[in-house]
Design goal:
The chain is mainly beta. The chain contains no helices and 11 strands. Strands 2, 4, 5, 6, 9, 10 and 11 form a 7-stranded mixed sheet that branches. Strand 5 and strand 6 form a beta hairpin. The relative contact order is 0.32.
């Protein structure tokens, strides 16, 4: 199993920046990809950014170049740099870790507890 802990959320003004971090521990070797998802009240959880162990990335359509995901192998962590934040970015942001296919029958996708991001003037 993989344990995920998010940090870096908070209150920021429109146009501001935040850097989210997610630290992974446990069975790190099973991870194929890690990512960030967000969920606003009344909305479905949606992909923000995702990065694989070979540094392939995927971003939600709403990002439009504002966000960047990166890996930190020495600390088994991923980071999300969020710039030019908008009020509609307000949500709980969750870290996610996907197992490799060979482990998917045994281990579920892991989720962190979430960190609140609020963009408001």
């Amino acid at each position: 199993q993989v344990h995920l802990v998010e940090s870096g959320g908070g209150l920021v003004q429109p146009g501001g920046s935040l850097r989210l971090s997610c630290a992974a521990s446990g069975s790190i070797y099973v991870i194929n990809a890690m990512g960030w998802y967000r969920q606003a009240p009344g909305n479905q959880r949606e992909l923000v950014a995702r990065i694989t162990t070979d540094d392939s990335t995927n971003y939600g359509d709403f990002v439009k170049g504002r966000f960047t995901i990166s890996r930190d192998d020495t600390k088994d962590a991923v980071h999300l740099q969020m710039n030019s934040l908008k009020p509609e970015d307000t949500a709980v942001y969750y870290c996610n870790a996907e197992p490799k296919d060979i482990y998917s029958h045994l281990l579920p996708t892991s989720w962190g507890q979430g960190t609140q991001v609020t963009v408001s003037s």
